[in-house]
Design goal:
Number of domains: 2
CATH class of the largest domain: Alpha Beta
Shape: globular
Mean pLDDT: 90
Strand order of the largest sheet: 3-2-1-4-5-6-7
Number of helices: 10
Largest sheet: 7 strands, parallel
CATH architecture of the largest domain: 3-Layer(aba) Sandwich
Helix content: 25-40%
CATH superfamily of the largest domain: Glycogen Phosphorylase B
Amino acid sequence: MKKVLFCVLNWGLGHATRSLPMIQYLQKRGHSLHIASDGLSLQFLKNECPDATFKPLKGYEVNYADTRLLLGMIKQGPKILKAVHKENQEIREYIEQHEIDLIISDCRFGCYDPRIPSYLIGHTLQLPLSDPITNFAANRTLRRWINRFDQCWIPDLQPPQNLSGYLSDARLNVKKKYIGWLTNLIPLADEKKYHLIAVLSGPEPLRTSFEQEIITQLGAIDGQFLVIGGKPDAKPSIPIPSNVTYVPIATREELSGYVSKTEVILGRSGYSSLMDWLLLGKKMIVVPTPNQPEQVFLAQRLEDRNWAVSQSQAKLDIQTGLNMINSLNVPQMQKSNFTLFEEIVQKII
């Protein structure tokens, strides 16, 4: 049995949900899990993995709501660099205190130690930034951080069937391994109840304005719909129409049950969410969070492959999206795609 320190980024719940299958796999194999994270991700993992040992680890606190993305990245750059350095110091101390054998880090770039094996989970190995100066500086820093680990594990299928495309197509000094898509949602043979389920996420105030537009439009469409607020304290920001059911948040088990009752998902084009919906064979209307270039890129990539309908938040039209759903060619994934990571993890353990 080994002691594994699993570090998870808290930018939305996506990193926590995609790390969960690997964490649970290691626990089932009898290894001791120490989980480091913060905020909603830490609380989520505490609920899902009560037998693990938990370490609060302050996050990078990046503000994605800034509409001036370029200026925002320049302003926040020094803060991120400082946070990465600080978390590395904290992690090294924790490793000594608890005699950790290896580290697996989901996009926490300071969570490594040259004295023990350190593995990074990440699909964004380069950013799709339009400004050439910012693109050069940001991606050079990103590659330097990644190269500090022993290996980089990409939660994706091998090209050309991969979802990440350009994002993971970066040259590194460390070995890259494609470990398959990660989800622990379970496809259930349930009778369809909802014409569409909307899953909300992302920073405020964009999340609330997105929610209001969705609820308003669904109220004017025939059918039964479900809206999942995406956070424990979520409350409807406007009155709920009679044909819409609203729940603040769902556990992974509950989410499996909900999505099995629909064929269509409406939500952000966050990478972890896309893995969930694609592995379950769902048709999607994806709406990237404004000013997040990665989500814009992924939404366009899905549309180009005819895997999803892509719309901007400013021009959201759910009825039009539903009219286009039947023309999609969503890939049907093999059950083995849920467990590709197990062989790679077992080799390093």
